[in-house]
Hints:
The chain has helices spanning 5-9, 15-27, 30-49, 60-68, 84-98, 103-114, 127-139, 149-158, 164-178, 188-197, 203-210. With 215 residues, it is an all-alpha fold. It has a single domain (9-161), classed as Orthogonal Bundle (Hypothetical protein af1432). The radius of gyration is 16 Å and the shape is globular.
Amino acid sequence: MTSDTTAALALPQTPLSQAVLALTLRVESPAIANHSIRSFVFARLFAEHIQAAPDTDYDPDLLFAATVLHDIGLSEAANGNHRFEVDGADKAAEFLTEQGVGAAAVDSVWEAIALHTSQHIADRRGTLCLLTRNGIALDFGRDTEFISDEIGARIHARYPRHSMATSLADIIIEQATARSDKAPPFSPAFTLLRERQAGQRTLLEHAADLGRWGN
């Protein structure tokens, strides 16, 4: 894996990626926006780790869109009538279509976002889904052995965590409390809501607590 921390932290500068970043920073809280950006950085490091090459095995712009928009369903810009993963995927697809992205590419980003909480399923739906889910998992501190302490520290200095897992859980639960169809049985929102109602610290927060980077 590269030891070049400057390269590891660099974000794509294409018009599409800059539009995606601007949308995310406008509609998401700092905690969730930083989590989303870190997920891209970690996804790209994971791609290098498994020797998946940009522009050959995956499109960097689409990976940026999938990771940076993966939680947009937790913003009011995309708070619809479905579970947050689907609302977020729908919003991302609408936005990318407006930016002139082709239908097949839009569909691949939709799938990566919609499946990002679906362990074992996302990993079998192609490279974009695989990288997106693993980038997000790495931000929870899972299986990070190939990432150096220096790069980890630089990522978090640039994009602080701000109690990321608690922020995520709070918004997911707030949405599910306001609208029951946001939390269909056995969905992550359904589980989080019941954990919080029982007065427990959620498993999402526990996962971050136990991960390498903390909450």
